[in-house]
Amino acid sequence: MEHETKVHYDEDADLSIIKDKTIAIIGYGNQGRAHALNMRDSGLNIIIGNIKDEYWERAEKDGFKVYTIDKAAEMADILFILLPDEIQPEVYENHIQRELQKNKVLCFAAGFSIHFGFISPPKFVDVVMEAPRMIGHGVRDTYVRGTGYPTLIGIYQDASGKAKDIVLAIAKASGGTKGGAFMSSFEEEAVLDIFSEQGCFAGMYELFAAHFETAVESGYNPLIVVLELWKSGEFVEEVKAWVEEGFFKQMSGHSPTSQYGSMTRGPLYVTEEIRKTFRKVLNDIQTGVFAREWMMEQKMGKPVFNQLKRRALTHPINKAEEDLDRLIRKK
Ligand code: NDP
Fold this sequence. Notes:
alpha/beta, binds NADPH dihydro-nicotinamide-adenine-dinucleotide phosphate, nine-stranded mixed sheet, 9 strands, Rossmann fold
């Protein structure tokens, strides 16, 4: 399948379309704080909507005017929803929906709530997405450094006919068009974001744990196994080299023994069964099976989540890491 990749940079975006608007950052957390600071530094009129807690105080300390979510939603022309995805539907229904009027804009940093149908905005508002491929701290740090970050932008509803210019302006003010704003969609972002979390990243945690268990069952020192795997920091350097040199290209930096072993043994782990699992996991994401399961899990007070978290935090890996921490000299 051929794909056209369209990327927008600073010169493709114009802040003037939103410079006289009131922009409410709803949720002053990881992404909320970073976006609020960046957009204010870009000269925009930012207010914060948050529940009354330490995030509210932090926003005030940062010099913002902070309001309840209802009030901020009423005052704003553009509402940037930066709440955790699983919280968004409830907050939208009880605090935002009734404040929406023609010409208002709803902006999200992820496709989840809209694509999986947990939020259905009225037809008369623009619904756009600016989804950084970067954690909150990185969104702020790269803005301050002047390099920006790569981001995915999308348009779900274009009631005003200006949704693309608006989302490009939001991306520019946040630092996204410096790193490159990739034209995407709510569906592409929602599916691929979750698929990376549940595909190779999820499998990797289990593979590391199985590797640890195999070596320890064979009589090896758990501390040395953990040191070999990630505690030395060598793995971090390897992942950095994926980014800087290339996923396969960086292999030349490893010994020929390592390269040969990895290229001959690696494929043994990816059996047809595993490819089937990848397809099943992807299918459950695409059809909304996972999204509905997760929302139900929240409603029931996260019993499975809490049980699995307990299992992870009592795995023998934790003890090996703690013992190792006492022995490694920190610079
Ligand atoms: P956070 O977990 O940092 O939370 C954001 C805010 O939501 C906080 O101010 C938090 O306040 C508030 N909040 C939590 N629960 C409630 C509630 N019940 N009612 C009202 N407010 C609440 O979120 P993130 O910044 O991580 O995520 C925001 C969005 O950005 C999501 O759509 C996410 O998918 C997206 N995104 C996140 C990335 C990341 O790296 N984190 C990367 C790219 C996109 P408090 O905790 O005090 O209740």
